[in-house]
Design a protein that fits this description.
Shape: globular
CATH topology: TIM Barrel
Structural class: alpha/beta
CATH architecture: Alpha-Beta Barrel
Order of helices and strands: HHEHEEEEEHEHHHEEEHEHEHEHEH
Largest sheet: 6 strands, parallel
Strand order of the largest sheet: 1-14-13-12-11-10
CATH class: Alpha Beta
Distance between the termini: 46 Å
Oligomer: single chain
Number of domains: 1
Number of helices: 12
């Protein structure tokens, strides 16, 4: 397929700007800081911003797309978003001198799609409310969870690689990227079973829930086996769950990628209200065989985990633990100590109400101080940003405040 000349010019101009940034010495300096943190020997706390409400970010047409071709538009968006973030809210991001192009990996899936009703507040925002319909009501329904079949469309991968070289040669290296799989069993099951049915079944039909998780875990591990056997796992991981993934303990590149060379992550956000014992009973049998396959792991997301560190310590190779806005910071830092990275998720709600920089700084300082008291490696990861009330400058200012708090 011929790439339109005008689209090629747009992409190459953005790629040239990206390459210039990637060549700056600060990129290697920042990667060294991430490697130190991920090795539990931090120089300082690190900061990242991710999962941004991009529909509210466009200032002076910085994010306005100009390409017509679909392949080019996707790459144009990625480059524009990278350049925008570097200019306005770079935190401790790293810009590498290559562009990831996903391999054409085909997956037949687990046999179930999502059936839901949604509630929309802002039509321009992809963040919506979900009400999932129950497709797993009986033991017989568990047969709907199928073993996935993985294959590689080599022709499609070759075509994408050829097009990418036409766009980026002489500016950015083209890196054909495989998959870096993660496993969040309960988050998947909620999408098929619904929130209330799952929570009731944990109390009323625990064996049914265990059977559900066991079948899904079998399917998930089958998927991993196939990806690994076919050489379709990823390399050169830059992030793991919105945080820097650079590490001295894992090879950054490999001609035959293996799970043991990668980060993975898991979570169970629906268990936010589950007791530590119930959380452990249902999820640990699924997560142990998954995490033991990988080199390093990140656990958690929005669920508060300051009371669940004993459970997380059972998971092999975990290096980072999410500390959501709903944890008691002091307790979390005390329980983690120097054993994991305290991956703090500051509340994005500060950006969805009257802007108060002093309150933001105090909130961030509380985490940094608590971690310092307990010898706890720390990162501040602002994510799940549903809205900034169409005031992107507040997010830019959050970036500046966070960097001052950590001494960047």
């Amino acid at each position: 397929m011929t790439i339109p000349a005008a689209d090629r010019a747009v992409v190459r101009e953005l790629a040239a700007q990206t390459a210039e940034i990637a060549a700056l010495p600060v990129q290697e300096e920042t990667k060294a800081l991430w490697r130190a943190l991920n090795g539990l020997k931090p120089v300082r706390p690190m900061v990242m911003i991710d999962q941004v409400c991009w529909n509210e970010m466009n200032v002076d047409d910085e994010l306005t797309l100009r390409c017509e071709d679909g392949f080019c538009r996707g790459l144009e968006w990625r480059l524009r978003a990278t350049l925008y973030q570097w200019r306005h809210m770079r935190a401790d991001m790293v810009v590498e001198p290559w562009i990831d192009i996903p391999k054409a990996i085909r997956n037949t899936g687990f046999g179930l799609g999502v059936q839901e009703k949604t509630a929309v507040l802002d039509p321009s925002n992809s963040v919506v409310g979900h009400f999932y319909l129950d497709q797993l009501q009986t033991e017989a329904d568990l047969e709907k969870i199928r073993m996935p079949e993985i294959s590689h469309d080599e022709a499609a991968t070759a075509q994408a690689e050829e097009q990418a070289h036409e766009l980026f040669d002489g500016l950015l290296e083209v890196h054909m990227q495989g998959q870096c799989p993660v496993y969040a069993p309960m988050d998947l099951i909620v999408c098929w079973h619904g929130v209330e049915p799952l929570l009731y079944d944990m109390a009323d039909r625990p064996e049914f829930v265990h059977a559900m998780i066991a079948r899904l875990t079998q399917a998930q591990l089958s998927m991993l086996d196939q990806l690994e056997a076919q050489g379709l796992l990823g390399t050169r991981q830059q992030t793991i769950h919105c945080t820097g993934a650079w590490s001295d303990e894992l090879p950054y590149d490999s001609p035959r990628p293996a799970a043991k060379n990668l980060w993975t992550y898991g979570m169970s956000q629906i268990f936010s209200t589950a007791s530590p014992a119930m959380h452990d009973a249902f999820e640990t049998p699924a997560l142990i065989p998954w995490f033991e396959r990988f080199g390093l792991g990140y656990y958690g997301c929005c669920e508060p985990l300051d009371l669940k560190l004993a459970m997380i310590r059972k998971y092999p190779h975990v290096r980072k633990v999410s500390m959501s806005p709903w944890v008691e910071v002091e307790r979390g830092a005390r329980e983690i100590g120097g054993d994991f990275v305290f991956s703090r998720k500051p509340s994005p709600a500060f950006l969805a109400r009257d802007w108060n920089p002093a309150a933001v700084a105090a909130d961030l300082q509380e985490t940094v101080d608590a971690c310092a008291r307990h010898g706890c490696p720390c990162e501040l990861i602002l994510k799940d940003i549903s809205t900034v009330l169409y005031q992107p400058q507040h997010l830019w200012e959050w970036n500046d405040l966070a960097r001052r708090v950590v001494g960047a």
